[in-house]
From TrEMBL:
It comes from Paractinoplanes ferrugineus. Residues 197-318 form the L,D-TPase catalytic domain. This is L,D-TPase catalytic domain-containing protein. PROSITE patterns: LD_TPASE (PS52029). GO terms for biological process: cell wall organization; peptidoglycan-protein cross-linking; regulation of cell shape. It comes from the Bacteria. The active site is at 276 (proton donor/acceptor), 294 (nucleophile). GO terms for molecular function: acyltransferase activity; peptidoglycan L,D-transpeptidase activity. PANTHER family: L,D-TRANSPEPTIDASE (PTHR30582), L,D-TRANSPEPTIDASE YCIB-RELATED (PTHR30582:SF2). The keyword Chaperone does not apply. Keywords: Acyltransferase, Cell membrane, Cell shape, Cell wall biogenesis/degradation, Lipoprotein, Membrane, Palmitate, Peptidoglycan synthesis, Signal, Transferase.
Amino acid sequence: MAVTSPAAEAKDVVAITDVKYTSEDPENTTVSVTDSKGAEVKGTLDKDAKVWKPEKALDYGTKYTVTVNGTAAAGKGGSTSSTFTTMAKPSKTIRVTSFLGDAQKVGVAMPLIIKFSKSIPEKYRAEVERRMPVTATPAQEGTWGWISPTEVHYRPKVYWKANSKVFYKVQLAGVPLGGDYYGKSDLTVDLNIGRSFVMTVSNKTKQMTVKQDGKVIKTIPVSLGKSTTPSSSGTMVVMEKLKHTVFDTTDTDPKNGYKTPIDFAQRITWSGQFIHAAPWSEGKQGRTNVSHGCVNVSEAMGAWLFDRTMMGDPITVSGTEEKLKDGNGWTDWSLSYDQFKKKSYL
Protein backbone atom coordinates (compact mmCIF):
# COMPACT_ATOMS: atom_id res chain seq x y z
CA MET A 1 0.00 0.00 0.00
CA ALA A 2 1.11 3.57 -0.64
CA VAL A 3 -0.06 7.19 -0.67
CA THR A 4 -0.08 8.24 -4.32
CA SER A 5 -1.38 11.81 -3.99
CA PRO A 6 -0.28 14.28 -2.76
CA ALA A 7 3.27 13.11 -3.50
CA ALA A 8 5.54 12.55 -0.53
CA GLU A 9 6.92 15.82 0.87
CA ALA A 10 4.88 17.80 -1.67
CA LYS A 11 4.75 21.57 -1.14
CA ASP A 12 2.14 24.19 -2.13
CA VAL A 13 -0.67 21.62 -2.15
CA VAL A 14 -4.15 23.13 -2.62
CA ALA A 15 -6.03 23.27 0.67
CA ILE A 16 -9.00 21.28 -0.59
CA THR A 17 -6.87 18.40 -1.88
CA ASP A 18 -8.04 14.78 -1.99
CA VAL A 19 -5.76 12.04 -0.66
CA LYS A 20 -5.38 9.02 -2.96
CA TYR A 21 -3.78 5.70 -2.02
CA THR A 22 -3.32 2.10 -3.12
CA SER A 23 -4.35 -1.01 -1.22
CA GLU A 24 -4.71 -4.70 -2.03
CA ASP A 25 -7.45 -5.00 0.60
CA PRO A 26 -9.35 -1.67 0.45
CA GLU A 27 -12.33 -2.90 2.48
CA ASN A 28 -10.08 -3.41 5.51
CA THR A 29 -7.91 -0.34 5.00
CA THR A 30 -8.22 2.85 7.05
CA VAL A 31 -6.84 6.32 6.34
CA SER A 32 -6.15 9.12 8.79
CA VAL A 33 -4.86 12.63 8.20
CA THR A 34 -3.36 14.62 11.07
CA ASP A 35 -2.16 18.22 11.29
CA SER A 36 1.17 19.48 12.63
CA LYS A 37 -0.13 19.21 16.21
CA GLY A 38 -1.26 15.62 15.75
CA ALA A 39 -4.97 16.41 15.69
CA GLU A 40 -6.97 14.24 13.29
CA VAL A 41 -8.70 15.99 10.42
CA LYS A 42 -12.35 15.17 9.69
CA GLY A 43 -13.01 13.68 6.28
CA THR A 44 -14.80 10.95 4.36
CA LEU A 45 -13.22 7.77 2.98
CA ASP A 46 -14.36 6.19 -0.28
CA LYS A 47 -12.87 2.69 -0.04
CA ASP A 48 -13.97 1.70 -3.54
CA ALA A 49 -12.28 4.71 -5.17
CA LYS A 50 -9.44 4.67 -2.60
CA VAL A 51 -9.88 8.40 -1.93
CA TRP A 52 -10.07 10.37 1.31
CA LYS A 53 -11.75 13.77 1.07
CA PRO A 54 -11.47 16.49 3.75
CA GLU A 55 -14.72 17.73 5.27
CA LYS A 56 -13.57 21.30 4.65
CA ALA A 57 -10.48 23.09 3.35
CA LEU A 58 -7.26 22.34 5.22
CA ASP A 59 -5.37 25.15 6.91
CA TYR A 60 -3.02 27.11 4.69
CA GLY A 61 0.76 26.76 5.09
CA THR A 62 0.43 23.67 7.28
CA LYS A 63 2.17 20.29 7.23
CA TYR A 64 -0.08 17.22 7.28
CA THR A 65 0.63 13.52 7.74
CA VAL A 66 -1.33 10.79 5.96
CA THR A 67 -1.34 7.33 7.51
CA VAL A 68 -2.74 4.29 5.70
CA ASN A 69 -3.34 1.18 7.81
CA GLY A 70 -4.23 -2.33 6.63
CA THR A 71 -5.17 -5.43 8.59
CA ALA A 72 -2.87 -8.42 9.03
CA ALA A 73 -5.35 -10.70 7.24
CA ALA A 74 -3.87 -12.68 4.33
CA GLY A 75 -0.56 -10.98 4.84
CA LYS A 76 -1.91 -7.67 3.53
CA GLY A 77 -1.44 -5.71 6.74
CA GLY A 78 1.00 -3.00 7.57
CA SER A 79 1.11 0.75 7.69
CA THR A 80 2.56 3.50 5.56
CA SER A 81 2.67 7.27 5.99
CA SER A 82 3.47 10.34 3.95
CA THR A 83 3.58 14.09 4.56
CA PHE A 84 2.66 17.15 2.50
CA THR A 85 2.41 20.90 3.11
CA THR A 86 -0.48 23.07 1.94
CA MET A 87 -0.04 26.26 -0.03
CA ALA A 88 0.28 29.68 1.57
CA LYS A 89 -2.94 31.65 2.01
CA PRO A 90 -3.84 33.04 -1.45
CA SER A 91 -3.94 36.79 -2.03
CA LYS A 92 -6.64 36.48 -4.71
CA THR A 93 -9.96 35.11 -3.49
CA ILE A 94 -13.55 35.06 -4.73
CA ARG A 95 -16.24 35.76 -2.17
CA VAL A 96 -19.52 33.86 -2.31
CA THR A 97 -22.84 35.15 -0.93
CA SER A 98 -26.33 33.72 -0.59
CA PHE A 99 -29.36 35.93 -1.19
CA LEU A 100 -31.31 33.85 1.34
CA GLY A 101 -30.43 33.27 4.99
CA ASP A 102 -31.01 30.77 7.78
CA ALA A 103 -34.58 30.28 9.06
CA GLN A 104 -36.06 32.44 6.28
CA LYS A 105 -39.50 31.44 4.97
CA VAL A 106 -40.19 31.89 1.26
CA GLY A 107 -42.79 31.02 -1.37
CA VAL A 108 -42.91 27.83 -3.42
CA ALA A 109 -41.31 29.44 -6.53
CA MET A 110 -38.31 30.95 -4.73
CA PRO A 111 -35.03 30.18 -6.50
CA LEU A 112 -31.89 29.69 -4.43
CA ILE A 113 -29.57 32.53 -5.47
CA ILE A 114 -25.78 32.43 -5.13
CA LYS A 115 -23.54 35.31 -6.23
CA PHE A 116 -19.77 35.52 -6.69
CA SER A 117 -17.57 38.59 -6.29
CA LYS A 118 -15.80 37.77 -9.57
CA SER A 119 -16.74 35.92 -12.75
CA ILE A 120 -16.32 32.14 -12.61
CA PRO A 121 -14.63 30.87 -15.82
CA GLU A 122 -16.73 28.31 -17.69
CA LYS A 123 -14.22 25.48 -17.21
CA TYR A 124 -14.66 25.74 -13.40
CA ARG A 125 -18.46 25.97 -13.23
CA ALA A 126 -19.17 22.22 -13.18
CA GLU A 127 -16.85 21.83 -10.17
CA VAL A 128 -18.54 24.77 -8.46
CA GLU A 129 -21.95 23.10 -8.92
CA ARG A 130 -20.62 19.81 -7.51
CA ARG A 131 -19.61 21.71 -4.40
CA MET A 132 -23.09 23.21 -3.89
CA PRO A 133 -25.29 20.30 -2.77
CA VAL A 134 -28.99 20.98 -2.09
CA THR A 135 -31.06 18.76 0.20
CA ALA A 136 -34.85 19.16 0.31
CA THR A 137 -37.10 17.45 2.86
CA PRO A 138 -39.14 15.76 1.48
CA ALA A 139 -36.79 14.99 -1.43
CA GLN A 140 -37.39 16.99 -4.63
CA GLU A 141 -35.59 16.99 -7.97
CA GLY A 142 -33.87 20.23 -9.01
CA THR A 143 -30.84 21.77 -10.70
CA TRP A 144 -28.50 24.75 -10.66
CA GLY A 145 -28.51 27.05 -13.69
CA TRP A 146 -26.11 29.90 -14.45
CA ILE A 147 -27.79 33.28 -14.86
CA SER A 148 -24.48 35.07 -15.51
CA PRO A 149 -20.75 34.43 -14.85
CA THR A 150 -21.28 35.83 -11.33
CA GLU A 151 -24.73 34.42 -10.46
CA VAL A 152 -26.23 30.93 -10.29
CA HIS A 153 -29.78 29.91 -9.33
CA TYR A 154 -31.28 26.61 -8.21
CA ARG A 155 -34.90 25.65 -8.87
CA PRO A 156 -36.80 22.41 -8.39
CA LYS A 157 -38.43 20.64 -11.34
CA VAL A 158 -41.84 21.85 -10.17
CA TYR A 159 -42.64 24.34 -7.41
CA TRP A 160 -41.24 23.46 -4.00
CA LYS A 161 -43.58 21.30 -1.96
CA ALA A 162 -45.47 23.44 0.54
CA ASN A 163 -44.02 23.54 4.04
CA SER A 164 -40.88 21.64 3.06
CA LYS A 165 -37.36 22.36 4.30
CA VAL A 166 -34.34 23.15 2.14
CA PHE A 167 -30.69 22.97 3.16
CA TYR A 168 -27.83 23.93 0.89
CA LYS A 169 -24.13 24.53 1.26
CA VAL A 170 -21.39 26.09 -0.81
CA GLN A 171 -18.00 24.49 -0.22
CA LEU A 172 -15.56 26.67 -2.13
CA ALA A 173 -12.94 27.59 0.50
CA GLY A 174 -9.54 26.84 -1.02
CA VAL A 175 -10.98 25.64 -4.34
CA PRO A 176 -9.01 26.82 -7.42
CA LEU A 177 -11.24 29.03 -9.59
CA GLY A 178 -8.84 30.09 -12.33
CA GLY A 179 -6.25 32.83 -12.76
CA ASP A 180 -4.65 32.28 -9.33
CA TYR A 181 -8.04 32.89 -7.70
CA TYR A 182 -9.43 30.60 -4.98
CA GLY A 183 -12.72 30.37 -3.15
CA LYS A 184 -12.61 32.48 0.02
CA SER A 185 -14.99 30.58 2.32
CA ASP A 186 -17.84 28.09 2.73
CA LEU A 187 -21.44 28.82 3.68
CA THR A 188 -24.58 26.91 4.64
CA VAL A 189 -28.25 27.96 4.57
CA ASP A 190 -31.19 26.22 6.22
CA LEU A 191 -34.55 27.68 5.13
CA ASN A 192 -38.26 26.93 5.10
CA ILE A 193 -40.79 26.86 2.27
CA GLY A 194 -44.17 28.31 3.19
CA ARG A 195 -47.70 27.39 2.14
CA SER A 196 -48.46 27.23 -1.57
CA PHE A 197 -49.83 30.60 -2.76
CA VAL A 198 -50.17 30.82 -6.55
CA MET A 199 -51.56 33.75 -8.56
CA THR A 200 -52.74 33.30 -12.18
CA VAL A 201 -53.80 36.25 -14.35
CA SER A 202 -55.69 35.98 -17.65
CA ASN A 203 -55.62 38.95 -20.00
CA LYS A 204 -58.65 37.46 -21.75
CA THR A 205 -60.85 37.56 -18.65
CA LYS A 206 -59.01 40.40 -16.82
CA GLN A 207 -59.17 38.31 -13.66
CA MET A 208 -56.59 37.03 -11.18
CA THR A 209 -57.26 33.60 -9.67
CA VAL A 210 -55.60 33.03 -6.30
CA LYS A 211 -55.01 29.48 -5.07
CA GLN A 212 -53.76 28.59 -1.62
CA ASP A 213 -52.63 25.00 -1.12
CA GLY A 214 -54.38 24.05 -4.35
CA LYS A 215 -57.78 25.61 -3.56
CA VAL A 216 -59.19 28.78 -5.14
CA ILE A 217 -59.62 31.33 -2.35
CA LYS A 218 -60.22 34.53 -4.35
CA THR A 219 -60.91 35.87 -7.84
CA ILE A 220 -59.77 39.47 -8.31
CA PRO A 221 -60.52 41.86 -11.22
CA VAL A 222 -57.36 43.36 -12.72
CA SER A 223 -56.25 45.90 -15.29
CA LEU A 224 -53.03 45.07 -17.13
CA GLY A 225 -50.73 47.12 -19.37
CA LYS A 226 -52.32 48.98 -22.26
CA SER A 227 -51.16 48.10 -25.79
CA THR A 228 -48.35 50.68 -25.81
CA THR A 229 -46.97 49.44 -22.44
CA PRO A 230 -48.07 45.79 -22.27
CA SER A 231 -47.64 43.52 -19.25
CA SER A 232 -45.31 40.56 -19.70
CA SER A 233 -46.78 37.11 -20.24
CA GLY A 234 -44.93 34.42 -18.32
CA THR A 235 -44.30 33.17 -14.81
CA MET A 236 -42.80 35.73 -12.47
CA VAL A 237 -41.98 35.70 -8.77
CA VAL A 238 -42.62 38.24 -6.00
CA MET A 239 -39.14 39.72 -5.41
CA GLU A 240 -39.86 42.70 -3.17
CA LYS A 241 -42.78 44.10 -1.16
CA LEU A 242 -43.32 47.82 -0.52
CA LYS A 243 -46.38 48.81 1.49
CA HIS A 244 -46.04 52.46 0.45
CA THR A 245 -43.74 53.79 -2.27
CA VAL A 246 -43.54 56.31 -5.12
CA PHE A 247 -43.24 55.31 -8.76
CA ASP A 248 -41.05 57.95 -10.42
CA THR A 249 -40.23 57.61 -14.13
CA THR A 250 -39.41 61.27 -14.73
CA ASP A 251 -35.65 60.62 -14.76
CA THR A 252 -35.84 58.14 -17.64
CA ASP A 253 -38.72 59.83 -19.46
CA PRO A 254 -38.80 63.59 -18.68
CA LYS A 255 -41.52 64.27 -21.26
CA ASN A 256 -44.04 61.51 -20.50
CA GLY A 257 -42.82 60.28 -17.11
CA TYR A 258 -44.95 60.30 -13.99
CA LYS A 259 -44.51 60.45 -10.22
CA THR A 260 -47.25 58.63 -8.34
CA PRO A 261 -47.64 57.40 -4.72
CA ILE A 262 -48.40 53.67 -4.72
CA ASP A 263 -49.78 51.35 -2.03
CA PHE A 264 -49.19 47.60 -1.60
CA ALA A 265 -46.59 47.26 -4.36
CA GLN A 266 -45.07 43.84 -5.08
CA ARG A 267 -42.21 43.80 -7.61
CA ILE A 268 -42.26 41.01 -10.21
CA THR A 269 -39.77 42.30 -12.84
CA TRP A 270 -36.60 44.40 -12.80
CA SER A 271 -38.10 46.61 -15.54
CA GLY A 272 -40.70 47.96 -13.11
CA GLN A 273 -43.75 45.69 -13.33
CA PHE A 274 -45.54 45.31 -9.99
CA ILE A 275 -48.77 43.98 -8.57
CA HIS A 276 -50.20 47.04 -6.80
CA ALA A 277 -53.30 48.89 -5.65
CA ALA A 278 -54.54 51.40 -8.23
CA PRO A 279 -57.68 53.17 -6.99
CA TRP A 280 -57.66 55.39 -10.12
CA SER A 281 -58.29 52.36 -12.36
CA GLU A 282 -60.89 50.56 -10.24
CA GLY A 283 -63.62 51.35 -12.78
CA LYS A 284 -61.53 49.68 -15.50
CA GLN A 285 -60.39 46.59 -13.58
CA GLY A 286 -61.93 43.41 -14.94
CA ARG A 287 -62.88 45.23 -18.17
CA THR A 288 -59.95 46.93 -19.93
CA ASN A 289 -56.20 47.50 -19.69
CA VAL A 290 -54.96 50.96 -18.71
CA SER A 291 -51.72 50.39 -16.75
CA HIS A 292 -48.09 51.02 -17.72
CA GLY A 293 -47.41 47.26 -17.53
CA CYS A 294 -48.29 46.56 -13.91
CA VAL A 295 -51.05 44.33 -12.56
CA ASN A 296 -53.57 46.85 -11.16
CA VAL A 297 -55.96 45.76 -8.43
CA SER A 298 -58.30 47.72 -6.18
CA GLU A 299 -57.08 49.33 -2.96
CA ALA A 300 -58.95 46.70 -0.92
CA MET A 301 -57.60 43.77 -2.96
CA GLY A 302 -54.11 45.27 -2.94
CA ALA A 303 -54.19 45.20 0.86
CA TRP A 304 -55.72 41.71 0.89
CA LEU A 305 -52.96 40.31 -1.35
CA PHE A 306 -50.16 42.18 0.42
CA ASP A 307 -51.18 40.68 3.77
CA ARG A 308 -51.00 37.14 2.36
CA THR A 309 -48.07 37.00 -0.06
CA MET A 310 -44.41 36.41 0.64
CA MET A 311 -41.22 36.70 -1.37
CA GLY A 312 -41.02 33.73 -3.73
CA ASP A 313 -44.75 33.45 -4.47
CA PRO A 314 -45.39 32.94 -8.22
CA ILE A 315 -47.65 34.88 -10.56
CA THR A 316 -48.35 33.69 -14.10
CA VAL A 317 -49.75 36.18 -16.61
CA SER A 318 -51.09 34.94 -19.96
CA GLY A 319 -52.46 36.38 -23.18
CA THR A 320 -50.67 39.76 -23.37
CA GLU A 321 -48.85 41.27 -26.35
CA GLU A 322 -45.37 40.76 -24.87
CA LYS A 323 -43.51 37.67 -23.67
CA LEU A 324 -41.49 37.87 -20.45
CA LYS A 325 -37.80 38.37 -21.27
CA ASP A 326 -35.40 35.91 -19.68
CA GLY A 327 -33.53 37.72 -16.91
CA ASN A 328 -36.16 40.42 -16.37
CA GLY A 329 -36.64 39.36 -12.76
CA TRP A 330 -36.32 35.88 -11.29
CA THR A 331 -37.46 34.30 -14.53
CA ASP A 332 -36.31 30.73 -13.79
CA TRP A 333 -39.91 29.52 -14.16
CA SER A 334 -40.39 31.16 -17.55
CA LEU A 335 -38.33 28.27 -18.95
CA SER A 336 -39.29 24.60 -18.97
CA TYR A 337 -37.27 22.44 -16.60
CA ASP A 338 -35.37 20.93 -19.53
CA GLN A 339 -34.54 24.41 -20.82
CA PHE A 340 -33.38 25.55 -17.39
CA LYS A 341 -31.22 22.45 -16.99
CA LYS A 342 -29.26 23.54 -20.07
CA LYS A 343 -27.92 26.42 -17.96
CA SER A 344 -26.15 23.85 -15.77
CA TYR A 345 -22.57 22.76 -16.53
CA LEU A 346 -23.07 19.28 -15.09
